[in-house]
Amino acid sequence: LLTVIITTSPIQSHPSSKLLEDVLDSFRHVPDLCSCSKLLVCDGFKVISPKHKDGIETNNQSKKGLVSAEVGRRYEEFVDSVTERATAGVHPFSSGNAEIIRLEKHMGFAYAVKEALSRVDTPYVIVVQHDFAFVRPFNLRAVLTAMLAQPEVLK
Question: pTM of the entire structure?
Answer without folding.
Answer: 0.89
